[in-house]
Amino acid sequence: MAASTRLVAIAGLLALLVCTSNGQLSPSFYAKSCPNVEQIVLSGMADAIKKEPRMGASIIRLFFHDCFVQGCDASILLDNAPGLASEKDAVSNKNSARGFEVIDAIKAQVEKACRATVSCADILALSARDSVSLLGGSNWTVLLGRRDSTTANQTEANNLPSPFENLTSLVSKFAAKGLTAQELTVLSGAHTVGFSVCFAFRTRVWGPEPNINISFAMARRQNCPASGGDTNLAPLTTPNTNRFGNQYFKNLMVGRALLHSDQELFKGGAGPTDGMVRRYGKDGGAFARDFAAAMVRMGNIGLKTGNQGEVRLDCRKVN
């Protein structure tokens, strides 16, 4: 069996085990009602990434930020409306969360095939999985059957893990969602692709900041001045290959993390997650397997199923 096939099989088994344990989601949820949904989503994501390779990372981030607020219920996709303050305007999302139009386009195609059947939450979960796979990362079986929320929580979105936090705070926030320090570490590996705005890493490259490679800091300063240029972009992992692998962890071990919160995962041998970073930096296969399993776990946070919530016809507004 080829290595890539083994990864899919292992991830699929993990997904089925989780499904059995929670008894709520199923990989075959749309087998009869919308059998082509996964192909529609994959095609939409392939087109989006072909047009802009950065979009894959943006969709992965969108899924993270959705699941950490009210659970994986597509609340992040809702626009402002009377009585509803959009999570898009939260500090962690405003001017940085993106990809909404990609999900809109995929949803439109899904609605043409199967009206009022597939939730925006499931479309986002599938899109995140396909983004990883299309960028060269692992694949896994996505459990389906989520329902969309009819509310948003901007206050909770303002408390999403930030690029300025220390390890203790990050571990605490992940634990509050039922995720371990190991899952924090491996899920942070999504930063192997994508970009960050200057505002999020200015204090790291201008200092004073421990555990940073000086030449790396000097290079990043070129596009992130001490003041101004807040929206200037830099790759989260260098070299920027737009390929999903374990380079992120290799960078952490030599002080080349762009974000303070990322470098907190590796403190030169003294940190509780240092061993995990070393493992993933040396073993890309272990990273791929564990990342797939952690994405399945994260995708089960705060589920709305059955009669809870709704299946939105438009991901930007409640029915």
UniProtKB/TrEMBL annotation:
Disulfide topology: 34-114, 67-72, 120-315, 198-224
Q: What lineage, starting at the top, does this entry show?
A: Eukaryota, Viridiplantae, Streptophyta, Embryophyta, Tracheophyta
Q: What is this protein called?
A: Peroxidase
Enzyme class at the top of the EC tree = oxidoreductase
Q: How is the cofactor bound?
A: Binds 1 heme b (iron(II)-protoporphyrin IX) group per subunit.
Described function: Removal of H(2)O(2), oxidation of toxic reductants, biosynthesis and degradation of lignin, suberization, auxin catabolism, response to environmental stresses such as wounding, pathogen attack and oxidative stress.
Site Transition state stabilizer: list residues: 61
The Plant heme peroxidase family profile domain covers which part of the protein? 24-319
In this chain, Ca(2+) 2 is annotated as bound at 192
Keywords, comma-separated and alphabetical: Calcium, Disulfide bond, Glycoprotein, Heme, Hydrogen peroxide, Iron, Metal-binding, Oxidoreductase, Peroxidase, Secreted, Signal
Reactions catalysed: 2 a phenolic donor + H2O2 = 2 a phenolic radical donor + 2 H2O
